[in-house]
Amino acid sequence: MTNQTCKVSVIGAGSWGSALAKHLAGVGHEVRLWALEPEVAQAINQENSNPVFLPGFTFPDNVTAFNDLATALQGAQAVVMVVPSHFFRQVLSQAAPHLPTEAAFVSCTKGIEADTGFTMCEVAEDVLPKDFHRSLCCLSGPSFAKEVAAGAPTAVTVASRSARKAQMVQKVFAAPMFRVYTSPDLVGVELGGAIKNPLAIAAGMVSGLGLGHNTLAALITRGLAEMTRLSQAKGGQLATLSGLAGLGDLVLTCTGDLSRNRTVGSRLGRGETIEAITSSTKMVAEGVINTKTVRALAGESGVEMPLTQAVYQVIYEGRKPLEVLRELMTRELKAEHD
Question: 20 to 30 A from 337, CA-CA: which of 66, 125, 164, 213?
Fold first, then answer.
């Protein structure tokens, strides 16, 4: 599979899954893209486009869309899972009987499962036979779907407990404008991608409230401290959180206008309700769910995460963003590094 084109099945035709399918096809791979919605699969096959989730882009001819999981997975040498975290277990359970045993498995979903507190690769370990466990991979880092689809220079990290499998996946995804690094820290890479989601909502609230760069810089820095504390408590490595899957992704999603999580926060900051925001779009902002799951994981781990707690209070308790901001700023004074 390495150093050659191969058959890649991308499971999930949302904006990120579609962008990765377009990218992988551009590398030269034969891409089978599974779409939940029949009309999305039809548009990709008939019009080479996905106007619902990735408008304005044309897919190469070596992308074929399917509405049937078994057909989409047939002959796959690499399987790329890109479905929302709250559907991950359900879709993977349906896909499991059709997964080729030797295929590389790559999670590109950033999130934590609500009922279990599992990362997506931990969900995969729970669902898939043990033969798959050692070779599970996670791809994460600062990568907006539209910019990847447009071919903008991008750098990401692929993590796996198997160095050989990580290097295989690295070569599958690598392209002149898509640089892929490897990491052995599966826990840190997955948690970095999940924890940054509620922090991006907080960054959006800063924008919606009309606050300035001082506030945003403080948020990103203290958010990184929260991300690092929880990741290390769960076994993640400090270096990971200062890299692409930690700081890199955090900066991107807290500052970039393409961030769905930041957009949700901005609308909250302007006074909209979370119900009105979530009902107005088909796009999934993982941070709405991840705020609850990250907060729960922090509580179980005994880790203080005041920013995440503040976002939770706004989303799930109906508190005003400015009110929780004042409480954050007037907490008991302390040393920066304890």
Answer: 213
